[in-house]
Amino acid sequence: MTAYDLSEFRSTVKLVVWDLDETFWGGTLSEGGITVRPENVALVRRLAERGIVSSICSKNDFEQAKKALEEIGIWDYFVFPHIDWTPKGQAIRSMIADMGLRDENVLFLDDNPMNLEEAAFFNEQIMCVDGRRALSGLLDLPQLAGKDDRELSRLAQYRVNEAKHREQVQGDLSNEEFLRQSDIRLSHIYDIDGNWERVLELINRTNQLNFTKKRVETPEAEAELREMLAMPGAHAALIHVTDRFGDYGLVGFYLIVKRASGARLEHFAFSCRTLNMGVEQYVYDCLERPVLKIAEPVASGLDAAAPVDWVREVVQGEDDATAPDRRLCLVGGCDLLQMAFYCGANRDEFVNIVRNGMVVRYDDVGFILADREDPSITGYRNRLEMWSRDEMRAFDAALGQADVVILSLYQSAAGQNFFTFGGAEFGGRHLMHVPAQAMRTILAGENAAWFAKNFYYRRYTLEEKLTLIRKAYDRVLSLVRPRTPVILIGASEVGARADRSLEIRQGFNALGREYASERAQVVLADPAEIMAPEDVVDADHFTRIGYFKLAQFINDAAAQGQGTPADQTEDVRNAQDFQQAV
Fold it and tell me: What is the largest CA-CA distance in the chain?
């Protein structure tokens, strides 16, 4: 298909593939210089903020092109770039397959008509446009409207996939070998009624690996789900996973409806603690790949390049792994669940979740420092999804019972949306870090005026935020037993986008280093000292091996810093007294 007018676009665009010379920029890189086109640089950024990712297919020297794009400050916005001297048609086809997309959702921009014809020959449904045209009109087309993704979550997801793909292409099978030697065991649990609360939790709280995102958040919706489970042809199960490191618990749920015309999945949701293990692909294949309408975005596709043959299906209870005896208390982002199960199955988890479409952050100094005795917080939760008094009290109790405490509070240093609220005095009594997505949601709704009246914005400097984090550390130490190791997870100073927040990351790590040096039971887990650069996917996420190395470090620190349970009788008695007090 030859190039055609922008008005002829027929499909939603999920990926824009850019030629470089005389398209993205003016001039030819290999022939003496280029001229930056600021409007195209801005266009790539605007598309990313709409959840539409960009890639490159250009006949150029890779390192030379990368350097030029880095100097422009736009390199990190491109994923799966193909920059060499090979033909473009098949290269684009491979790129689309590697990204798990369809050619009908791809737009290719190139100034050479022959390249456009070649791309259309190998990708019949691709949309092609002459790159010499003015491209500003792209943003006005409904096919490129996308959806609000100013946090660039979709770009980050594709960067994760790109890193995995790059390892495979380079012949580095260490991640797969790691999965194979992990002895991953999976069982289907059919007692839905006996695990009803976990079913609802997986449906409503999981997001990254929730492929349908059909929430069940009202009594009416819950009744409809029970009716569907009782339908003829409906089959459902929870997924239980263990490996030689420990027990992941019930990490997945599916509901499949089988008819003579075929089978379809009504629910297919997994916890992010099994991300990158291949569990969701394995289950989907076991179900014989029924019809599934995927609600994007998801962090992992279901079209694996090869069968997931490193997962072994067992009857529940068969050959169970033995988890460490220690009890963990974990605070941070949900990605840390990928690390935590290597530390032990007995865990109190206070990790970020999505509730009613809003992110609730527990890696918030406000969650640790807010007044537990003030009942007014309960009233605020009626209009804004946030942590509750019960959760704060549960956290305090968990600290008193923990054998190891793991804190990941970097986002309290990097965050900007700090507010105070509640109490009788002007300015509020409690502190809260409101995620940007939650702010957009509430300001666009009927509670916008209420939020503006009751929440007071705090323009904290980095030093002020670090002071709050130190206070949060102090409070945690005041509640744990004297010999309980407290692990502070540091921030990565390398990886995609790390340079944009390097001062914050360095300041946060300096605080953790200083704090740990002053207290024997506190240890800083610095990713730079624990992992290799290739273990870092982006500034805030690691490969599965990276999380495993982090867990090994924590296990070693716990073993060196903690007495035996028999030595801790008095500590346990003190913890029980504290729990009764709260």
Answer: 79
